[in-house]
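Q: I have 293 residues here and want to know how they pack in 3D. Can you give me a structure?
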Amino acid sequence: MAETARPIIRALLIDISGTLMIGSKPTHRAVQALAELRRARFPFRFCSNTSKESTSVLQKRMLDAGFDVQTGESQELWTSLKAVRSFIHTRGLRRPYFLLSESAKDECISAGQYDPDVPYDAVIVGLAPALFNYDHLNSAFRILVGEHDSQKQCNEDPKPSIPLIALHKARFIESSGHGLALGPGPFVTALENATGKEAEVLGKPSKGFFQTVIESLDCEGHGPDECIAVIGDDIQTDLGGGAIDLRLWRILVKTGKYRAGDESKDGVHPPDEVWDSFADFIDSLLSTDDGVI
């Protein structure tokens, strides 16, 4: 329910994992609620920190679950992997060291710049449980401090600073059928601690990620009584950081990784609304003339 009067919502940014789906199963009535939102021609974007699978695999999983989603290079679905691809292109990176699944890695290097014959020039970390072991983390550490064999054998001048890039820093995730599980955040933090570097986060809740998605909506010129809203199950990763800085209307749902009391923990910026599910919020959103465009 809303803690304060809801402003006019012009568009909605929707988290996927834990909000629309848990694993490959939709949350209660989520498929129907999304269909109603689309029938109402209400502007929305999907915002996902997916890094365990490629964007195309995520799209297929949503379609298989019954969701009506656009396919291909859609402006409707925004992921942290898309942000990584853009980052690699913009920075001119030629050989990042990836702690990513194979499908996620393939998406990141699809820009065509990857060169396996040059030294590693960045470390990029997502959710890759099979790679979070000593050997891989130590390789990442050695690259970041300039001690990797590929760097020592190179005749080129070493780069002054090798960037540490995190798709996100979620401390834990909701693992379908198994409850909470470690996310990439603790492993990113370990590399930060060991190297003295601060990771640059490209996905949620970075301000840059949210700004890019909002620009695709063409809704930036809203009035003082209007807003863009974001909905998710993680008070920090989905609704923190850039969502607060950009003054988005923040809706927390009690599905996925949500646990009782998350919204009132010390150091947490309380959400504007709390609902049992995505579908319950959409029911409320579409049933009132006050909260929609």
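Q: Anything worth noting?
A: The CA atoms of residues 182 and 293 lie 39 Å apart. Residues 80-91 form the longest helix (12 residues).
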